[in-house]
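Interim report, section 4.2 (structural modelling).
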Amino acid sequence: MKHKLLSGNAILGMTAAAMIGAVAPQAAIAERTKNLILMIGDGMGPQQIGLLELYAREAPDSKYNGNPTAITKFSDEGILGFSLTNPHDALVVDSACSASHLALGIDAPLEAVGIDANGDPYETILEMAQRLGKSTGLVSDTRITHATPAAFAAHQPHRSLENEIAVDMLGVGPDVMLSGGLRYFVPASVNDKGDAYEALKERTGGGFRLSSKRKDERNLLEEAENLDYTVVHTLNQMNDAQDDGKLLGLFANSAMMDGIAYSRSANEPGREQPSLREMTMKALDILSQDEDGFFLMVEAGQIDWASHNNDPGTLLHELLRFDEAIEYVYEWVQGRDDTVVVVTADHETGGFGFSYSIADLHEPTELPGSVYAGRSFDRNFDYARKEILSKLYKQSDDWFGLWLGFLRKDKADQTPENLMELVNSHSEFKIDLEDAKAIMAKQPNPYFSEGHVFAGQETLPKIADYQAFYMVTLGTHAALISRQMADQTNITWATGGHTHTPVNVIAWGPEETIDPFSGALHHVEVGALMKDIISGE
Ligand code: MG
Ligand code: ZN
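Predicted structure of the assembly:
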């Protein structure tokens, strides 16, 4: 690994301190705080954190058994700010722009990664850490080329350019990259199912589907090996990799498994895909070898996806998966004064919330207090029963995947009856035949725009309102499943997209270092503050 005694900035700081005969606080911070761990819950607004906290504290059979979440522990021991996420020219942000704000510490264009508002490449916090001799890592449970990790190690005009992003990322060369996204790293001829396919199957162990999205014959896995990466595709291979070298782990063709699939397989012997927690553990094993410190970004990216699909059961499992990774980081930093941890989100997704309704009214009860003498304790609304949390936990398939599975049935079997049965077999909340019909219904797209990636669809799933905010067909059918259960779950959603909701910023570490993260912030500021920590300024 690289070793440098002191970064240029730290030396400058110390010289200045010596000249004025006092200890420069900046230099002191730079020497002590050498590691920064940034943990991003994509789409994890305060409402989503609220779901996790309600589940942990109030679910009748909560897995936490009265113990606090890792998010609670970091919040209690660290400091809390709230941060606006909007770009300079709009109110609502996408993940690429928001991650760029965090990575660059300056304004950035929507849907682009690692570039400034003019459209020029700009140094990311990861590149800055490299320049200062630190080790760096990116971990995500989506795919490594997806918007959030990409913004830290690529410079491209659009987030969809994942082939180019993969090349950029190898060029930047973080010491650790662990996620899905193999299909952007393998030659196009893999799709011919010939020699290239067989070679790839041999290399990966054949544990997951293989295809390529590349338009060329570049084999970035081989290129990575030539750049001294160990390349791995399973949990065992990852754990066997040396802690003193570079590591590229690509564990899925596209996305890694969703939170429910992970929960169901977590304790299965022979599970081949590492969890977010296991990837974080390995990344810290490797990066902590560097005496100069490190920068690590860990993303729980499917909190966003579950929220796009308005799928609360999956959302809960995504949050649990993230908290498991945060818990490991919490354990890892105990007793350390050289590490800052920042837990935040890039934006809120879905306009999610529990609410009260008139769908399931309570019978009046009695309260013993004097104020209620001669009067029953009555409420006008159903304020959402705690059992809902345990029922949500028991959802056993994600609604997006379930809908996909339904579409893969023979046309003749794609009936409302079969959909009803399928949904009800995976949920404690039941739908009826009319609900199933509503989930399947389509209508002409009033926003049709020829050739547009989303607006170009001639029909859209029929949603009662906000049609323009539900543009992804598969996800909207998933959202409609949740809508038909809303009377039972007390859960409402505002959109299939993102909202402006300010997100929490939780910072833990040496007091003088994390102080600036308290209060009202903007994500551009949060990015700049993190760069200050890395550079010791
Ligand atoms: Mg993301
Ligand atoms: Zn999103």
